[in-house]
């Protein structure tokens, strides 16, 4: 289809057996990344439908060389859809996720709406791919509709990094501090950081539409709702989702987790400082070897040149980058390690992880 001929959906007659895919929230930060990831990974698509709010109906988005016109999301949007990739916020997922399943679709949901719902798999493909098979959800000739939840972006990045170590020697306790990028709060937050940076440099009063604080040249506690125990919702997601993904919800000796989540004026890719206490011995070299050999992670750990992961290394990359692997001096030798991780949360923390789940469903 030539780029000059917009269509409300794109379909390929040579791929009629491939799934009809819908992206809900296609105009957002995650939605646009879905388009890039699906194309780059050559995900089999029989037909692609792009859905967003009434504001975006008629807008065209690029999918490779094609331009596809966005449609307004309604309850009737899912007729004939096999795979619905949701990224339009929790209330939309709660309202229309079940409607998509009733229409026969497999839903992979990026919001927090169903993550902790019993029976809904919460999946990081590198960590717990088996959760999908257990739920008996599938695409293709044995299509079985249902909802699969994509975990919180900071949780995905953290677990991809620590899982190779945890599989070798169980982690007893994990203390994590995040440095979270603007893109984690969506396209409007990215625009606000850009605008505020310009305004601050020109000595103007900064515009605060998305966050209550100045974001440019500043940092602040994560904007998710504060809970009575003093943690914000993002921090508690990292605790509870970790236990569900690791299959420890019912365990008396589940991993002890505490998180502090901070927004920093970085446009894209989250960073995390992670302190681990092992139930056994884990040396720095062992940890480096395990990370170097694991899928989804790469090492940047060059002490001589003070070269460690940065958000700019991670942006637009599939892998999460791990470095600053060092013994925790506050603990006996071999018991504790510190590490620093950077991962693109729009990509691995959202769109890529969801597409990897869909790839498992197709298999
Ligand atoms: N950003 C991340 O790094 C990240 C990571 C993990 C998970 N998530 C989750 O993914 C979801 C989307 O995040 P985002 O960052 O992409 O947000 P975003 O940039 O603000 O995009 C939101 C999308 O939802 C659509 N939308 C909003 N209201 C709608 C409505 N009433 N009906 C239909 N569509 C509607 C928007 O369409 P319009 O353009 O028409 O308004 C837009 O396409 C959220 O649940 C978020 O928590 C985000």
Automatic annotation (TrEMBL):
Oxidoreductase found in the keyword field: yes
Top-level enzyme category: oxidoreductase
Pathway: Amino-acid biosynthesis; L-threonine biosynthesis; L-threonine from L-aspartate: step 2/5; Amino-acid biosynthesis; L-methionine biosynthesis via de novo pathway; L-homoserine from L-aspartate: step 2/3; Amino-acid biosynthesis; L-lysine biosynthesis via DAP pathway; (S)-tetrahydrodipicolinate from L-aspartate: step 2/4
Residues that coordinate or bind phosphate: 115
Record: residues binding NADP(+): 27-30, 55-56, 183-184, 345
Naturally occurring in which organism (per UniProt): Algisphaera agarilytica
InterPro entries for the chain: Asp_semialdehyde_DH (IPR012080), Asp_semialdehyde_DH_beta (IPR005986), NAD(P)-bd_dom_sf (IPR036291), Semialdehyde_DH_NAD-bd (IPR000534), Semialdhyde_DH_dimer_dom (IPR012280)
Residues that coordinate or bind substrate: 180, 263
One GO molecular-function entry: aspartate-semialdehyde dehydrogenase activity
Subunit field text: Homodimer.
Sorted UniProt keywords: Amino-acid biosynthesis, Diaminopimelate biosynthesis, Lysine biosynthesis, Methionine biosynthesis, NADP, Oxidoreductase, Threonine biosynthesis
Catalysis: reaction(s): L-aspartate 4-semialdehyde + phosphate + NADP(+) = 4-phospho-L-aspartate + NADPH + H(+)
Function: Catalyzes the NADPH-dependent formation of L-aspartate-semialdehyde (L-ASA) by the reductive dephosphorylation of L-aspartyl-4-phosphate.
EC code(s) of this entry: 1.2.1.11
Domain Semialdehyde dehydrogenase NAD-binding: 20-135
Highest taxon of the lineage: Bacteria
Catalytic residues in the record: 153, 270
UniProt family annotation: Belongs to the aspartate-semialdehyde dehydrogenase family.
Keyword Chloroplast belongs to the record: no
Name this protein carries in UniProt: Aspartate-semialdehyde dehydrogenase
CDD domains reported for this sequence: ASADH_C_bac_euk_like, VcASADH2_like_N
Entry's Gene Ontology BP terms: 'de novo' L-methionine biosynthetic process; diaminopimelate biosynthetic process; isoleucine biosynthetic process; lysine biosynthetic process via diaminopimelate; threonine biosynthetic process
């Amino acid at each position: 289809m030539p780029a000059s001929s917009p269509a409300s959906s794109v379909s390929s007659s040579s791929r009629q057996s491939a799934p009809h895919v819908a992206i809900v929230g296609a105009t957002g930060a995650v939605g646009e990344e879905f388009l890039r990831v699906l194309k780059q990974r050559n995900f089999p698509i029989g037909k692609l439908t792009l859905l967003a709010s009434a504001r975006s109906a008629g807008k065209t988005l690029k999918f490779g060389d094609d331009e596809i016109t966005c449609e307004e999301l309604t309850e009737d949007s899912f007729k004939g859809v096999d795979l619905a990739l949701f990224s339009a916020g929790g209330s939309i997922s709660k309202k229309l996720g079940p409607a998509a399943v009733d229409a026969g679709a497999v839903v992979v949901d990026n919001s927090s709406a169903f993550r902790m719902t019993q029976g809904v798999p919460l999946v990081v493909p590198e960590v717990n791919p088996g959760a999908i098979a257990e739920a008996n959800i599938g695409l293709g000739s044995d299509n079985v509709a249902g909802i699969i939840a994509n975990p919180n972006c900071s949780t995905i990045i953290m677990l991809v990094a620590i899982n190779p170590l945890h599989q070798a020697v169980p982690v007893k306790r994990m203390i994590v501090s995040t440095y979270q990028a603007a893109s984690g709060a969506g396209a409007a937050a990215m625009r606000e950081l850009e605008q505020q940076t310009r305004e601050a440099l020109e000595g103007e009063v900064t515009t605060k539409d998305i966050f209550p604080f100045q974001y440019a040249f500043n940092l602040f506690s994560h904007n998710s709702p504060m809970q009575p125990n003093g943690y914000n919702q993002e921090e508690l997601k990292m605790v509870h989702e970790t236990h569900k993904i690791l299959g420890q919800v019912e365990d008396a000796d589940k991993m002890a987790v505490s998180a502090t989540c901070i927004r920093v004026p970085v446009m894209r890719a989250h960073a995390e400082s992670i302190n681990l206490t092992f139930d056994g011995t884990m040396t720095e070299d062992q940890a480096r070897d395990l990370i170097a050999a694991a899928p989804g992670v790469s090492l940047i750990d060059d002490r001589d040149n003070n070269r460690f992961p940065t958000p700019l290394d991670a942006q637009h990359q599939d892998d999460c980058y791990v470095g600053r692997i060092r013994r925790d001096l506050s603990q006996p030798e071999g018991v504790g390690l510190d590490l620093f991780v950077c991962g693109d949360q729009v990509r691995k923390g959202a769109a890529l992880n969801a597409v990897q789940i869909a790839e498992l469903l197709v298999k």
